[in-house]
Specification:
It is a single chain. The protein is of the alpha/beta class and about 250 residues long. It has one domain: P-loop containing nucleotide triphosphate hydrolases (Rossmann fold, 3-Layer(aba) Sandwich), CATH 3.40.50.300. It is built from 10 helices and 10 strands. It binds adenosine-5'-diphosphate and magnesium ion (MG).
């Protein structure tokens, strides 16, 4: 049985004349964590934005190739991008809660979907915060402004906000790079605890993080996918010399 929930074939992304991704073939297995690693500027964020069509918002960006999610071409003409982004949630590098209460942050997407009744919202808000491993810290402060919490707490509130709309896939672009080590570790634990229900793709600069939490790792360099393998196998025994050099800190 094919477990691949995302299949991307020959994905090229141009910013104007400049080709930033040179034909990426990369598949993602359902309910696994895949790490995207590689030096700054190699195309990790660009590739991630292909998966939820956020590059659509960059006027000079143009993609060729195909990306299928659950066997549906997400760039087909009839695709509703709002529906796609309900299925594919994104958590960004800087925690970016809205400047209102914890409750209203997590309920935000649900309200957009027309669920207005607080009695209906409350249990979903609670379960999302529990899933994001932040409930105990915020349960007595649900009406406090989300911005009053620490960076690590804000990031887990943002994860809860993403989980509330029940995406199938969660994209995270260096979600812990702005956090201290303890907060980063908490976010990592959150990801490990939810992966049985979600397919997670995480861009990370942190090789230890990739090796701690991911099942598979994709190494990008200069807009190309250099190596893609089981994380343990790649870290122990990279096949490509460039992967080996990168993992050993020879460039970064
Ligand atoms: N909006 C943009 N317009 C033009 N070039 C861009 C844009 N975003 C990224 N790039 C370029 O595309 C390449 C890949 O960038 P990016 O995907 O951000 O890499 P990474 O996330 O791996 O650091 C870089 O050369 C970067 O300068
Ligand atoms: Mg990036």
């Amino acid at each position: 049985m094919n477990q691949d929930i995302i299949i991307s074939k020959n994905v090229r992304l141009y910013y104007g004349q400049k080709e930033a991704l040179h034909g990426i073939n990369l598949n993602f297995i359902k309910n696994k964590i895949t790490a995207l690693i590689g030096p700054s500027g190699c195309g990790k964020s660009t590739y991630l934005r292909c998966l939820d069509r956020m590059n659509d918002l960059i006027p000079e960006a143009k993609m060729t190739g195909t990306i299928k999610i659950n066997n549906h071409d997400i760039y087909a003409p009839r695709v509703n991008v709002a529906d796609l982004r309900r299925e594919v949630g994104m958590v960004s590098q800087q925690p970016n809660p809205f400047p209102f209460s914890v409750f209203d942050n997590v309920a935000y997407g649900l309200r957009l979907e027309g669920i207005k009744n607080k009695k209906k919202l409350a249990p979903i808000v609670e379960s999302s915060l529990k899933q994001a491993a932040i409930w105990d810290e915020v349960k007595d402060h649900l009406n406090d402004n989300a911005l009053s919490f620490s960076g690590g707490q804000q990031q887990r509130i943002c994860i809860a906000r993403t989980l509330a709309i029940k995406p199938k896939i969660i994209l995270l672009d260096e979600p812990t790079s702005a956090l201290d080590p303890i907060s980063s570790f908490q976010v990592e634990n959150t990801l490990l605890s939810i992966k049985k229900d979600y397919t997670i793709i995480i861009v990370t600069h942190n090789m230890q993080q990739a090796s701690r939490i991911s099942d598979r790792t994709a190494f990008f360099l200069n807009g190309k996918l250099i190596e893609f393998d089981d994380t343990k196998r790649m870290f122990l025994n990279p096949k490509n010399e460039k992967t080996n050099d990168y993992l050993n800190g020879k460039f970064g």
